[in-house]
Input
Amino acid sequence: MTIKETQLIIDLKALETNFKTIKNQIKSTTKIMGVVKAFAYGTDSVVVAHKLVDLGVSYLAVAYTEEGVRLRNSGIQIPILVFYPQLEELSSLVEYHLMPSVYSFNFLIGLNSLLKDSTVIDFPIHLKINTGLNRLGFDLDELDEIYEEIANSQHIKLAGVFSHLAASGTASQVDFTKQQIAKYKQAQAFFIEKFGQGFLSHLCNSSGIFNYPEAEFDMVRAGIALYGYGNNAAENEQLIPISNLKTVIAQLRTIQKGESVGYERMFIAEKETVIASLPLGYIDGIARQFGNGKADVLVNGKKAPIVGHVCMDIVMIDVTDINCQEGDHVIIFGREHSVLEFDKYQQTIPYEIITRISQRVTRVIEQ
Output
């Protein structure tokens, strides 16, 4: 492929391969929820969502109501769970048939009250249970109160009960994760006793899918794994990055020993050096923390370090020992040079890098 500008190439074949890898990890009867929040982890939520529907996901998940509305307007019809809905968005949730995650009494009581003023009956919700992440969700000692609020309402229907694992990809946290699974099972058993088995139980995130098959339940939530990354080396080996950020060499410049590159003169040449300037910067998601030798890109198959500060629209790299010319394409990260290789000192996590790629970067879809 000829690259004439900075592009994020989204590899749908790699997405399909990752989906099949996840599918092979679970029972044939277990449903998959495809998480497409944050522009499908920095790619294109509409394109990815439609591909996942074609592949057979049962649910999609987004963070915000607006994300779900966008998917509905693109023709998506399968159930969509909204992780962080707001009461002010109830009309959109109802109109677009979006299922809210209900994680607090304030939201549950408010939702029930607003629905009473409408003609809506059996509005489906998923209850979020806190099992140790301590971020959002109901605690186990609140289950009776939750039951009373739902049982006494004809406007709310329990469609799902879920929780979120805090460290399912961390080997040192196995005992903690098993404690979370045990707490979730308590909540699940409580609601089965009260409502029967007419709701979906889901706990596993991407690492949970690979490491805790006993926590599979009715459905698993596949997020980062769909996009080609895991939370440890064993998971990464089974997955293919679908985001391929590429650009071109805009200009080559030879500088002499003692000359500097970029703002604040953070790079001083120790010898005659060839510098390539690339047309992308921190506005595009390449954070300043990756300047000054903290990240490598790939030029004609060879690694080249970023030198000097990352600028708003420009990144400079050292290509002294690489045979290249202006117009040659450069791989920032992707299938041939993963985010883990780009971020050579592991300053952050793949999630952060891939989701930061700005919307001004042209998206190109590879089928």
